Amino acid sequence: MTRAILFVCLGNICRSPAAEAAVRALAPHLALDSAGTGAWHLGEPPYGPMQAAARRRGLDMSALRARQFQPDDFWKFDLIIAMDAENLANIERQRPENAQTEVRLFTDFCNTSETAIPDPYYSRDFDGALDLIMRCARGLVDQL
Ligand code: 4NP
Q: Residue 36 is part of a domain; what is its CATH number?
């Protein structure tokens, strides 16, 4: 049974903390965390506009702080969920020998033709990203 899940994006200030908060709201008993493959925002709270968009949907991301994905995460989580194919490839490049943890795309968990959560840091479409994140969160929790 999947208990500890890590959500991974690039900066860990938009998509993956929102995914963590969305899944936590649906399944508070799960051990959840998020991380970024990049190191630009270490220790920072989630991006202000993303927090504001999430807050309008009742999701509080304010306590989260950005950290970088590390190979050790393969041993700490039962499932690692990437926000896009680039994140997934980056994670897989860091897979330790013998680590069996599954790495999946978040969009695998909902009925969508999308294969990525579009990055709202660049698109500025925070609500569009959250729409998809919340659908994938529901799909994930339903499949656990
Ligand atoms: P995220 O968005 O991966 O959804 O957190 C980004 C945030 C910041 C940067 C890239 C993506 N950045 O390059 O600073």
A: 3.40.50.2300
User: Mind listing the pLDDT tens digit for each residue in 89-135?
Assistant: 999 999 999 999 999 999 999 999 999 999 999 999 999 999 999 99
- Supply the pTM of this predicted model: 0.98
135 lines ligand 1 (CB under 6 A): no
Domain extent for 97: 4-143
As beta bridge partners, residue 4 has 31
Residue 34 and residue 17 in contact, taking contact as beta carbons nearer than 8 Å: yes
Q: What is the pLDDT of residues 26-64, one digit of tens each?
A: 999 999 999 999 999 999 999 999 999 999 999 999 999
Q: Which ligand 1 atom lies nearest to the CA of residue 16?
A: 4
Q: Is the CB of 18 under 6 A from ligand 1?
A: no
